[in-house]
Amino acid sequence: MIAAALLAAAGGLAACSPDQGKSTAAAGGNDASSCTNTITKQNLPVVTMWGWYPNMRLVVDNFNKRHDDVQVCWTNVGQGNDEYQKFQTAISAGTGAPDVIMVEMDRIPTFQIQNALVDIKKYGFDAVKADYGAGAWKDVSVGGAVYGVPVDGGPLAMIYRKDVFDKYRITPPKTWAEYEQAARKVKDAGGPHFGDLGANVPALMMALQIQKGATPFTYDPARPKAIGVRLDDQASKDVLDYWGGLARQGLVGTQNQFTPEYISGVINGKYATYISAAWAPGYLTGAGVGKGKDTGRFAVAPLPQWDPARPVQVNWGGSAFAVTGQAKDPALAAKVAYGLYADDASLADGWTNQIIFPLNLKVLKDPEFVAAKVAFFGGRQVNKEVYVPAADGYRGVTYSPFGQYYYDAMTKQLSALIKGSVTGAQAADRLQQDVAAYAEEQGFTVQ
Fold first, then answer.
1. pTM over 0.70
2. Is the separation of the CB atoms in 25 and 14 below 8 Å?
3. What are phi and psi of 218, to 5 degrees?
4. Which residues is 271 bridged to in the sheet?
5. Which of 10, 158, 333, 442 could disulfide-link to 327, CB 3.0 to 4.6 Å?
């Protein structure tokens, strides 16, 4: 009953990065005749898959070249919501899904509760378990089962403009209290907004609340009708009040992110900082930031902490390869899921071209990756200084089976917070009431 009620819940903004292109094909499923890639090794078993990474063709070709026992037929049916809607249609119809699907980690429970994904623990998990950290595995797990192979993630940090910091003699704040102090100093001197509170980034707000100590959801499929919803705890209220206060004082902007207006503001120095994930440099570069007169103006520092003596690392975004419930051969599909984007050549292309921030420990511990000088940040070794320690410290979260509804509800409350019609505490209370009522409507017992 719960699964049926959630049939329309899948979908939403691609969290790992903004849209990087529409679909190159409109069909796929288990039909191996509509591959976007060219399969050169004939008469081998074929595993179909959907995915939207910008270098997906290269990744699939690399896999197929390395294997003489299976070939991958790849189709791009769209990014994020576009793909999820097609997958949801296939779930409802009982046919039309691929064997393997790229899915953002926070959407895994939505599909898992519909029995649309396969627990791949019995299909070679032990052989690759050591290739990823505990946080990455938790993000692709529901209870004790594993429903995806981690590929990329988004450990959070603070990107900042060196020219603004230098002009106003600001050093990177190590705490959120220092962040507010620096913001006020810049504003009092007639400077730009210190950051931005966008209503359209609810997953970011969720991560910032978790950093303060919030646990939005607890869920275990062993008790499929029970779910913990705690969106009005003190930590959640504190973070909403903090950012609402910054906005109310005019210390941060309130522009929706990933919009032309926001990017224009970033380019023109309207914001001194950008609280974002490790995929942000690649996104910003693709959006035209850090080029021309902007070259060399950006740096990055660790995410400010509430208690620097007990730092908490959090994540925004990330995707995985999952085996669908319609896979013709789940064991063979799992082999593909484990092997895609896991070879040295594909991983190297991903991080050197700033397409992904890899979660594979073979890369995170590779001296070449750790010591890489990132052009966007003026050649600084930001992986070593910021992003790898953030990834190493991340412990993972529990996502809900109705993540899209929660994000939509959070966006509604963030919009009200920005308008000043509610306080942060009130927004948290309303969010709790909204999401808990929705969960109960779907047949859950809210704890």
1. yes
2. no
3. -130, 130
4. 193
5. 333
